[in-house]
Write a structure and sequence with these properties.
The chain is mainly alpha-helical. The protein is built from seven helices and four strands; from the N terminus they run ββααβαβαααα. The protein has one domain: 2-enoyl-CoA Hydratase, Chain A, domain 1. About 60% of the residues lie in helices and about 5% in strands.
């Protein structure tokens, strides 16, 4: 379960620098949403993460810890054996649907991505970092994607 404060931001910006996504995005968000963010590295806010299934709920920042503890306290009201078995039902169900194979393939493809980095795609990022530090690196990596279509790094919309 994942709970986030209203100012949380989610993204996979590492895909912009020759890295890979993770199958858990697909598992949680669904194929189309996972592709949308895995192929661009665009950022999403907590409401979009909730809409596509990355998180369970959005709560005010000052209530996040208390909300999580309330969930834990509710779970604690159920017998530990039932909690354990229900967790096993959910987890094993995912494994029967191929989760283990998907994660193993994710690892294999991740290694392939990392070992196939083209020098011409990463050299300009490394040069920026060498010349101007992390801020320059991030600007070089993310600058061409700004503003993002929506979410926390988009242009404000009329009436918003």
């Amino acid at each position: 379960m994942t709970y986030a404060s209203e100012d949380a931001v989610f993204a996979q910006p590492e895909v912009r620098m020759i890295s890979n996504t993770n199958f858990f995005w697909t598992l949680n968000a669904g194929y189309k949403h996972a592709l949308r963010y895995a192929l661009t590295g665009d950022h999403i806010d907590a409401q979009e993460a909730l809409r596509i299934g990355i998180i369970n709920d959005v709560v005010p920042k000052d209530e996040l810890i208390d909300t999580c503890f309330r969930i834990v306290e509710r779970i604690a009201l159920v017998s530990p054996e039932t909690v354990k078995l229900n967790l096993a039902v959910a987890t094993r169900g995912l494994e029967m649907m191929g989760l283990r194979n998907a994660l193993m393939l994710n690892d294999e493809l991740s290694a392939l991505v990392q070992s196939s980095q083209r020098e011409d795609f990463k050299r300009y990022l490394l040069d920026a970092r060498k010349q101007g530090g992390m801020r320059a690196f991030l600007q070089r990596r993310d600058g061409p994607f700004q503003p993002e279509p929506f979410g926390p790094r988009s242009k404000p919309r009329d009436g918003a």
